[in-house]
Prior knowledge:
single chain
Amino acid sequence: MRKIAFTNAKGGVAKTTTCVNVGAGLALAGYRTLLVDCDTQGQITKSLGIRAGEGLADLVQGDAGLDDVQIEARENLFVISGGGTLSGVKRMISRRDMRSELVLSEALEDLRGYDFVLLDTAPSWDVLSVNCLFYVDEILIPVSMEVLALQGIGDFLGRVNEVQQYREGLLIKGIIPTFYDGRVKKSAEIMEQLERHFPDALWPAVRYNTRLSEAPGFGQHIFEYARRSNGAADYARLAQRLAKGR
Ligand SMILES: Nc1ncnc2c1ncn2[C@@H]1O[C@H](COP(=O)(O)OP(=O)(O)O)[C@@H](O)[C@H]1O
Ligand SMILES: [Mg+2]
């Protein structure tokens, strides 16, 4: 079971979009995949057009069991929902004196039967984000083609490095350029810098594609909403790359 977080302290860089569509790509390729929504915004269920029900907060707080919270969204694609109730989880984690970084890991400990568990994380650096990094073995960092996103990534990697001191084996699997637009000079410049700074970790880019922003409004992933779009092609490629191995 591979456990992977899509994470970056910056918002609007396509963490949720990437989690949902890479997950959908893996599910379509036959991999049993679970999406865990660790954001108080709770966008994963909406993106897939399903009702939230009991979710991650209920599980962590002991009000629901693992069997209650896994929702089958599509064939091979399951969701544990997030949302506003996660604020209570953060308070609960903050109150714990011991092993507070392992609250999420303990709640998900008995999870079985998936090829991939993908975490969508909040655009912040808080106790819940830290818990996510203590649960997963790999992280993928979406970075949008903005100067500020590029500057933020250095800070973010510094914090990940701190966690890595306590969690050997936490792997920065890749950096995924998002909102790439080949016609715009800014995109090319930022890609160049990413290539220079992260020659080994840079993954293929996701191009700017309005279809990707429309799909969640219809409760569909990109392979349902626009199978022949650039967005579908890019996310199929990323899913393949991820499936290829560690
Ligand atoms: N490649 C893309 N092209 C166009 N719009 C995109 C693309 N990726 C994401 N979006 C849109 O950009 C917004 C931010 O994406 P989102 O995945 O919610 O970011 P995050 O989870 O990092 O905050 C959303 O409205 C989403 O639909
Ligand atoms: Mg998000």
